[in-house]
Amino acid sequence: MVRVKNPQDFWAGLLFLVVGLIAIYLGRNYTFGTATKMGPGYLPTVLSWIMAGIGAFLALRALIEAGPEIEASLWRPQAFIVAAIVIFGLLIERTGLAPSVVVVTVVAALASREMRWVETAILAVGLAILCVLLFVKVLGQPLTIFNWGL
Amino acid sequence: MDIINNLGIGLAASATPINLLFCLFGCLIGTLIGVLPGIGPIATIAMLLPITFSLSPLGALIMLAGIYYGAQYGGSTTAILVNLPGESSSVVTCIEGYKMAQRGRAGAALSVAAIGSFFAGCVGTLLIAAFAPILAKFAEQFRSPEYFSLMLFGLVAAVVLAHGSVVKAVAMIVLGLMIGLIGTDTQSGVARFTFGVPELYDGVDFVPVAMGLFGFAEIMSNLDRGGDKPKTTAKITSLWPTREEIRRAIPAALRGTAIGSFLGLLPGGGAVLSSFAAYTLEKKVSKYRREFGTGAIEGVAGPESANNAGAQTSFIPLLTLGIPSTPVMALMMGAMTIQGIAPGTAIISDRPELFWGMITSMWIGNLMLVVINLPLIGIWVSLLKVPYRILFPCILVFCCVGAFSIANSPFLIFMMAGFAVLGYAFNKLGCEGAPFLLGFVLGPLMEENLRRSMVLSFGDPTIFVQRPISLAILVLSLGLVALIVLPQFRQTREEAFQE
Q1: Which among A57, A73, A105 has CB closest to B224?
Q2: Does residue A73 sit in helix, strand or coil?
Q3: Do residues A55 and A98 both lie within one domain?
Q4: Domain that holds residue A84
């Protein structure tokens, strides 16, 4: 059984390898061209191969040379932060700026274990007002403030 | 004298009430985010980039530049008083600065940091004023092969100067180059890697990438480490350094300014590398090196001068060649593009009021920063009491609204979420975001110049070594590669980044 001695490099290598291979696959139909007349596929293909090559090298080297462990992750902050961003993307056109900011602030605040409800509620309303004032009133961005129609 | 004339033009443009206000605003924001750990200039400038759309070009650039060098001032405050780096460029200031604060010399350390920064900022600004026009004139002879070689040099330097693994830095650059190629090919009109998403036809927008990779990934990593920690702030008694302290700080500040001015020019250098290098240098050459680790004032004066000098001179490659050398400069380039200004050799001759206005505003800004940072220090310290659990939702909301208002498209928000996950993974896997961002920005430029060069030479790749300037740049790049391979240099490089 082969043991991974350098987890950071190993997974980074796999990531690069997979991205490289996917890019080679996706880019297979772009015209490669010649050195004189480089087609749209020339550089992407060359770079994809380099990428995949480095990835494979990193992953293989990680089996031989030891390296640092990957620091442990907490699932809670990551999940809530990503969820907050995605929810903003889903809400902004449906509910308008102010309600989205309130919801997103609460979801984001949940990422921290020290979250306090009253404090967060005040923050959410405050941020919503600030965003409306700054982005809509001062900067004149074409954002809807409220949209209750969904 | 030409330069005095030019500075006159600049002052006329930058000293208008509205531009002074932008300068002050930028410096205040810069100091604020510098003082606050957990948010840096990259995320902040990305956040404010969409806002600059409605400003005048000069006002926008003055404000964004102010944020960058302002952050260098603010960062030292937190480093000295709380032993936390407010900014990555003030990491080394913690070492001696906090020790000084423990000995009751916090005020002196703050003054020396601010005045050293001011001096370095003035020198940096003068250097830009003196050398940028000469460099731009020289660069007028550059054609595609020279530009391609120059960008290659930039990427090589970014690898050499990156922290940590060289192989991973190369991979990050290649990945950045590839993401940069997403979008419609300018020559053939073929849509590459767009997955049929119309938002991608014009290429991947820079702002969500920078926010995701730097802003959000940083929030996620901070929360991983447990978010808030109790901060104990050192007391400030007197801001005045003693005569002895001044005598020792001056040569260190001079050395720091010199090393920072030089390293700031290099791609991937900028403020962070400058401060590290200055600290290492002080430890080697100072007469008081035995005191290092117990609060030597040289260890504050040197790095703090260096990071500000580096922050200033890193504008030179962008303003003269149109090539951004650090992620922050890439954002500045984005700001110029938003305003319809093509960065490059022509800026100085075509838009003198813009170029000289920016330079003079930097000098004015540095002056403002001394005032903002020294007498008003108490205000900034009290801001440190804002807990992270309140701070990070604010950052998140501003990033989201900012990214959305670039194109009113939810797609950019989802893409930003993707890059946040990617950036977090990079952090965990020990891959650096900075080389990625450089590759991402330079990718399309490099491809264009490579293709043009090959058309120019009828497909003969030796064109890059036949043209003398291009050859010289390539030889320099090779020299850098040789440096990595040399075991001695490798060792010093590792030592330098260890500290």
Answers
A1: A73
A2: coil
A3: no
A4: 75-138
